[in-house]
Amino acid sequence: MTRTYLKKFLHEYGPFALLVLLTLAVWESAARLKLVPAFILPAPTAIWTAMLEQRLLLFREHLPATLQEVLLGFVLSVCCGVLLGTGMHMFSPLEKALYPILVISQTIPLIALSPIFIMWFGYTLWSKVAVVFLTAFFPVVIGTYDGLHKSGAVYKELLLTLGANRWQILRKTQIPPALPSLFSGLKLSMVYCVIGATIGEWLGGSRGLGYFSRRMAGNLQSAEMFAAVFLLSALGIILFLSIKLLENIILQKRGIHR
Amino acid sequence: MGLYCVAVHMKGGLAHTNMISMTNLSYSFSTSPEAPVFSGLSMNVRQGEFVSLVGASGCGKSTLFKIIAGLLQHTGGDLNVLGTISSDPSLRLGRIAYMPQQDLLLPWRTVLDNCLLPWELNRTGSKTEAVRNIRNMLERFGLEGTEQRYPHELSGGMRQRTAMLRTLAAGHKLMLLDEPFGALDAITKRGLHRWLLELWGSLEQTVLFITHDLEEALLLSDRIYLMSGGAGGGVQEFLVDLPRPRHYRMNYEPHFAALRADLERRLYDTYIS
């Protein structure tokens, strides 16, 4: 039983693991042989050592700060995004008014807006949450809005002849098929949240992995900087996978198959 | 809910009450009012009758169904459905059972939950009662044991029967069935005819039925309307004087064959005229 499981696991992830190991080996030897200076590319083992040395600062101080910004921004994005997407689906004037604004909001370079955010919110948590929200709510709106349109007119007509009102049509035949699309939006949004938080911390602040990595880069402490970047990436992966897990559970429970 | 077990086939006494009647009904898209989808349509469906509608593809049969069901507004003529003439078609919504061409079972719901949909929307009576009703019907529809299955686990014939059950579960006396057996293979279709003819007498429904299959129309209907679309269209009535109760093997009888030949000829005439 465990053997076949292992076999399947190796078949699925073996090539990936092999490539990572190979890259790490080449990287490590290049660093050991001093082909590249350590401040440009530190050895993987040096990054690991740096992470262990800085573990208190990284895990007690900066990771929780970033996680807080990410989660707050995500919850805000999901609430606003789902409401906005549903509102645009239900009320066509709202859709006509908001869709262009949404697209415009995504074309504004965030970095250019950052001084304004700092002026509005100061160097607080909320200036970062604002950046997170602006990067992460768009996929949720689009995922919700497009998802709700999936079921099409035929189900709507059927439900109308059964005497349903528009909210019943939404609940019974539009939300269930919208879930896969909504979850695609959520997964994208989650990853964007981590990126948004990092950008927010770069712009100003005193806590968080983004702030830490920037400070370390300024000091030419590349190993520490890479440790923080690695943690950020790991955070993104873990959060992404938790949404995916939630998706699998909910879709399976509701009998929706992609 | 809407299942009435009456052993005898209801005809005669109640047969003069019109469930649907229309005079000179026409429909055209607002973009091209000079080229109607159909026009000059006059017909009626009496209580307890099974009436079929045949005609070329695109002559507006499905559009007519949507108008009767209340999804569309006719553009000319008079329409009286269930004894009410109303200019607002949405008042008809929720009063007539309508089964569209595709089965439209919700793929994320089990057979039982699909059939409970009409109850969920109206919430008349208790849920236990509704479930018990559906369970009884599932048995009569030959669907026992499938209630926890999802639509993709069913055969085409079972899906159609489930969809028909859901349509019946809405509890309306007038049913519009748009080619319910159109997508099935010949053998499955035969099986469903046999099943429907056995079940029909006890359902006490009034049915307007769209089909392209002339044998099906003759086997099931009391009357058939031949419909042709466009500006000069209209309908022709065709009486099916086969005795009831009908049997699915009737189509081998000489009288049936004669009716079929006659119907085919008249349908052909509407094509070329």
UniProtKB/TrEMBL annotation, chain A:
Pfam families, A to Z: BPD_transp_1
Keyword hit for Cell division: no
Record-linked Gene3D superfamilies: MetI-like
Entry-linked SUPFAM superfamilies: MetI-like
Subcellular location: Cell membrane
Topological relation to the membrane, as annotated: Multi-pass membrane protein
One CC-aspect GO term: plasma membrane
Lineage: superkingdom: Bacteria
Keyword Membrane on entry: yes
Keywords: Cell membrane, Membrane, Transmembrane, Transmembrane helix, Transport
Segments forming domain ABC transmembrane type-1: 63-247
GO BP: transmembrane transport
Transmembrane segments: 40-58, 70-91, 97-118, 125-145, 225-243
PROSITE patterns linked to this entry: ABC_TM1 (PS50928)
Cross-referenced InterPro entries: MetI-like, MetI-like_sf
Assigned protein family: Belongs to the binding-protein-dependent transport system permease family.
Name of this protein: ABC transporter permease
The species this protein was found in: Paenibacillus jilunlii
UniProtKB/TrEMBL annotation, chain B:
Coiled coil: none
Keyword hit for Manganese: no
Residues of the ABC transporter domain: 20-254
The keyword Nucleotide-binding appears for this protein: yes
GO MF annotation, one: ATP hydrolysis activity
SMART domains referenced in this protein's UniProt entry, alphabetically: AAA
Cross-referenced InterPro entries: AAA+_ATPase, ABC_transporter-like_ATP-bd, ABC_transporter_ATP-bind, P-loop_NTPase
Sorted UniProt keywords: ATP-binding, Nucleotide-binding, Transport
Name this polypeptide is given: Putative hydroxymethylpyrimidine transport system ATP-binding protein
Organism: Paenibacillus jilunlii
